[in-house]
Amino acid sequence: MLVALAEGLAGTGHRVDLVVLCGPAPPLEGLRVLALGAAAPALGALPFLAYLNRQRPRAVLSTLVGPNAIAVACARLVTARWRPRVVVREANTLSVALRYRSPANRRVAAAVVRAAYPHADAIVAVSEGARADLARFLALPPERVIAIPNPSPTGALVARAAAPLAHPWFAPDRTTPVIVAAGRLVPKKGFGVLLEAIAQVRQRRDVRLVVLGEGPERATLEASRARLGLRDVVEFPGFVDNPFAYLGRADLFVLASLAEGSPNVLIEALACGCPVVATDCPSGPREILREGRDGPLAAPGDAPALAAAIEQVLAAPPDRAALRSRAADFDSGRAFGAYSRVLGLGEPPRQPRGEVGTSEP
Fold first, then answer.
1. For the residues 126-130, what does the mean pLDDT come to?
2. Which fold has domain 2-152+331-355?
3. For residue 207, how many C-alpha atoms fall within 13 Å in the half-sphere facing its CB?
4. What is the pLDDT of residue 360?
5. What's the order of all strands across the beta sheet hosting 234-238?
6. Range(s) within the chain of domains with CATH label 3.40.50.2000
7. Structure pTM?
8. pLDDT band per the 50, 70, 90 thresholds, residue 263
9. Which of 41, 105, 191, 208 has the fewest beta carbons closer than 10 A?
10. Exposed e or buried b per residue across 246-265, where buried means at least 16 C-beta atoms within 10 angstroms of its C-beta
11. Would you give the distance in Å from CA 131 to the centre of its chain?
């Protein structure tokens, strides 16, 4: 998401550096990508401070608890009288997301957030629910946290959704509905509950499920699949390069998460014209689906409720063209403009790619 934001800001005429604390620097068109070479994110503070003193950017945008704390601390330690404007972005409903960390990690992360975030020039959350939660968590006035939805390049997904897909379950003449889910295989995503719901649906009608993504819970989920007698009707293909080809052909997309910040995949499913069902988890699905008007909402962790919502949509699918039209409301340009304003950059006229990089970062 930070890459998408960086590319979007660069496309509006700003010079943008993408700074990677640890790991390699991926080549990206229109951006200067700088790898600081730290052995771990926490060890990137001194190299990042040196970067700030050397480059003197007008503004810094960071995300995730560790990098956010580093950005805030380093901006206050620059040697010159100048200092950049620092905007920290929280991608989760924080109080809920912290529950999925170990107790020791949870305490450290909570202390870091409370110590660092209030000293940022602006705090951004990715949905209204996440914004309200973060303001409560930090004991800040609600106006100190700004909600900016993630950029969603919905128009660009159409061509990718139409790309070929060599999977027999998705044949145009199939008679068995195919459900798709996607995300990292971790407890927070609720895939175990989804498997329970699919087993209940199959007591009344035939369906298949494809879960896209990889993660540490794969073995547990595969064991649940076998226990529930779903071995022949549920697939875990792992990471795929083009999930939109699946979304464009699926009969239904299901988000079973127990917690989110703002699940982009719901918007992406709508953009592909795919009917959706989601849990009413904190936060994002209720906002994206307009209180359930664009897809039913089920209580998080409630397999029977999720099964009922799945059967409801399969029995009366919505108009796919209307779903695609709804996704257009999440146009990326709005997010880029909002981030440009909160970063103190104004809204410069769009420049050709060849002119990007002519101003200070």
1. 94
2. Rossmann fold (3.40.50)
3. 27
4. 53
5. 234-238, 208-212, 178-182, 252-255, 276-279, 297-298
6. 2-152+331-355, 154-329
7. 0.84
8. very high
9. 105
10. bbbbbbbbbbbbbbbbbbbb
11. 15
